[in-house]
């Protein structure tokens, strides 16, 4: 009997072990079959504002049609959280009006938000906001899990309608995510925002209407903003909520705000950094380049009364990251620099310089006209295209080109360089002032102070266009018999005195001269002499001709032989000097000159006809025609002629 019992116990144990093993295998099989849930991108409407979403970082899908102006956007690049998420994405260029996926990341609030027009969306300005966000392409980062369902602040709950505080639901963080979790402070702030939108206006009656939060125009602060800030602070400190009818005096004062610098007035320049975003530079060196830009921005003291700075990045093609007026202080500029992403591609610096000349320094992009234009080009190694022609056009447009070459070609690598001595051919001047050669990216930071000192030395920015270095000046000189040899030498001295006032070179002001009687003679053209001393010597060598006075024919001759060869980037000035009435018609030739953009100054001596001078001169004639009773008094009019030339120049757009 005992033996039978033992046998039965053994059988039971054996069966139990079999079932246990079978269950383990079954569980393993079940484990293998479990799949992670597929990430679904939540969709939002066009009117959803970033401040309504509690999640600090998320991917969403925007519908089509969010370009509508009723979806308000505040800021540029960095947006106030009161903005439409999808509207901001279109403004920043991440999306078009057809919609799509975007990645949104919350960042700190800004002291101010600058409105701008971009990609069909007009964003608005805002004085300050407690929370901001940035948008980028909707490509999730590796190792980061984004929420499939967003957490909203519940502003439509019954409590919110009655003006009572509401509680936001905080979703538990998804395991494995590296996105920052929502903090209690964030929830408190979101709650304060919701409660604020439903706070009643101060009123004796209990049933007062609710007030909505409305962003105010730049430069103004609303009691709503101050009330919200006070309410938020009270919530975070577990103190009683601020009474809606009471706004502390400290909150109303703008003195508490950190004053923003107006910029260094001793360094008033319009500066474009042209940075290398090619694939060859690599991610690490690109980060070093961005840090260098941030350090320069800090050292420059950016502001409306001082330097302004924009950035163009190039690879295969150039693209403006932001223009001169996008960020008006060093702090905001540094924040924007941090967001720049690398373009990749080749290193087409020449194409980038052309882009800067044609597009960047315009009034629409913030060019002030009264400040020198400076472009600092950074190149990793060497460009993959030629820079000489593009740089020449930039210099002739008044842009001071600086070149920073980092880790330039070694002797063995020079055979691969597309354009030898490219830096020498590109810079404003080849005296070493405009070139910086850096041996390693890791020592680039050492050049910050040297570069800042150079770009701020406005007296040495020789390529800036001024009234004295940006013209082709053609002198048309009467050599008729009535002038005489002695007076002709006096006229030549007057021409020389005027020429001395200009900065003369092949890329600055150029001088040419025509002498006329019945006939015309080209004494020298714009391309014949490129230094001031050579010009003055050429003037001395002009011989007196003698003959009749055909001023109309002389104007036509000067247009054909001199100004037809003028550069398109130059101002064309004709200075005509005569001592009598013309034997031929001057009206039609003068009209042709004016139509071709030649600014004509008419200077008459002795027997010159004043009515004829006024016909020859550009309108208004009182600023472009002069009469001198004697040849010996010509010298007295040199300052007046120069003053009028410069006054007219300074009244025109810089580029």
TrEMBL record:
SUPFAM superfamilies: LCCL domain, vWA-like. The keyword Secreted applies. Residues 270-455, 472-641 form the VWFA domain. Keywords: Disulfide bond, Extracellular matrix, Glycoprotein, Neurogenesis, Repeat, Secreted, Signal. One of its GO terms (cellular component) is interstitial matrix. It comes from the Eukaryota. It is found in: Secreted, Extracellular space, Extracellular matrix. InterPro entries: ECM_Assembly_Org (IPR050525), LCCL (IPR004043), LCCL_sf (IPR036609), VWF_A (IPR002035), vWFA_dom_sf (IPR036465). GO terms for biological process: extracellular matrix organization; nervous system development; positive regulation of cell-substrate adhesion. Residues 40-133 form the LCCL domain. Pfam families: LCCL, VWA. Coiled coil: none annotated. Residues 153-181, 195-219 are annotated as: Disordered. Residues 1-26 form the signal peptide. Residues 164-181, 205-214 have a biased composition (Polar residues). Binds dermatan sulfate and chondroitin sulfate. Promotes matrix assembly and cell adhesiveness. Plays a role in spinal cord formation by regulating the proliferation and differentiation of neural stem cells. This is Vitrin.
């Amino acid at each position: 009997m005992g033996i039978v019992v033992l046998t039965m116990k053994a059988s039971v144990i054996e069966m139990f072990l079999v079932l246990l093993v079978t269950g383990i295998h079954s569980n393993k099989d079940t484990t293998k079959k479990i799949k992670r849930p597929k990430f679904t991108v939540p969709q939002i409407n066009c009117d959803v504002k970033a401040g309504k979403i509690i999640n600090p970082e998320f991917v969403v899908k925007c519908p089509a049609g969010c370009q509508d102006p009723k979806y308000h956007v505040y800021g540029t690049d960095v947006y106030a959280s009161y903005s439409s998420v999808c509207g901001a994405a279109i403004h920043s260029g991440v999306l078009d009006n057809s919609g799509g996926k975007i990645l949104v990341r919350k960042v700190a609030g800004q002291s101010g938000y600058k409105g701008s027009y971009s990609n069909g969306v007009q964003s608005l300005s805002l004085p300050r906001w407690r929370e901001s966000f940035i948008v980028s392409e909707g490509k999730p980062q590796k190792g980061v899990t984004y929420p499939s369902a967003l957490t909203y602040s519940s502003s439509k709950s019954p409590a919110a309608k009655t003006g009572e505080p509401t509680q936001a639901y905080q979703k538990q963080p998804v395991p494995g995510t590296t996105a920052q979790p929502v903090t209690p402070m964030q929830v408190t702030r979101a709650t304060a925002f919701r409660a604020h939108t439903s706070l009643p206006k101060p009123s004796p009656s209990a049933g007062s209407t609710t007030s909505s939060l409305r962003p105010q125009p730049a430069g103004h602060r609303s009691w709503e903003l101050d009330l919200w800030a006070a309410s938020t602070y009270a919530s975070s400190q577990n103190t009683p909520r601020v009474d809606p009818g009471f706004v502390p005096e400290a909150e109303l004062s703008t003195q508490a705000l950190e004053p923003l610098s107006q910029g260094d007035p001793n360094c008033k320049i319009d500066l474009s950094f042209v940075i290398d975003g090619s694939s060859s530079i690599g991610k690490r060196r690109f980060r070093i380049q961005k840090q260098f830009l941030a350090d320069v921005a800090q050292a420059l003291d950016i502001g409306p009364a001082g330097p302004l700075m924009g950035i163009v990045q190039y690879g295969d093609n150039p693209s403006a990251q932001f223009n001169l007026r996008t960020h008006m202080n060093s702090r905001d500029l540094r924040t924007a620099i941090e967001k720049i992403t690398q373009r990749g591609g080749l290193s087409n610096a020449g194409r980038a310089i052309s882009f800067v000349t044609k597009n960047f320094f315009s009034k629409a992009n913030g060019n002030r006209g009264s400040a020198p234009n400076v472009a600092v080009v950074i190149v990793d190694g060497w460009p993959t295209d030629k820079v000489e022609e593009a740089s020449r056009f930039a210099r002739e447009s008044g842009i001071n080109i600086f070149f920073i070459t980092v880790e330039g070609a070694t002797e063995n690598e020079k055979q691969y360089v597309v354009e030898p001595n490219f830096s020498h051919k590109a810079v404003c001047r080849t005296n070493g002032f405009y070139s910086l050669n850096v041996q390693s990216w890791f020592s680039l930071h050492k050049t910050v102070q040297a570069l800042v000192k150079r770009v701020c030395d406005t007296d040495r920015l020789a390529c800036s266009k001024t009234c004295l270095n940006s013209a082709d000046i053609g002198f048309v000189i009467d050599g008729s018999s009535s002038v005489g040899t002695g007076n002709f030498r006096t006229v030549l001295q007057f021409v020389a005195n005027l020429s001395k006032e200009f900065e003369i070179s092949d890329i600055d002001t150029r001088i040419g001269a025509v002498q006329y009687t019945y006939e015309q003679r080209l004494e020298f053209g714009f391309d014949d002499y490129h230094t001031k001393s050579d010009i003055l010597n050429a003037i001395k060598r002009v011989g007196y001709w003698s003959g009749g006075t055909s001023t109309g024919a002389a104007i036509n001759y000067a247009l054909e032989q001199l100004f037809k060869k003028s550069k398109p980037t130059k101002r064309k000035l004709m200075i005509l000097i005569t001592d009598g009435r013309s034997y031929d018609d001057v009206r039609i030739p003068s009209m042709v000159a004016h139509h071709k953009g030649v600014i004509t100054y008419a200077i008459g001596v002795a027997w010159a006809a004043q009515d004829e001078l006024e016909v020859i001169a550009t309108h208004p004639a009182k600023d472009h025609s002069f009469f001198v009773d004697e040849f010996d008094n010509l010298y007295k009019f040199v300052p007046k002629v120069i003053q009028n030339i410069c006054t007219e120049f300074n009244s025109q757009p810089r580029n």
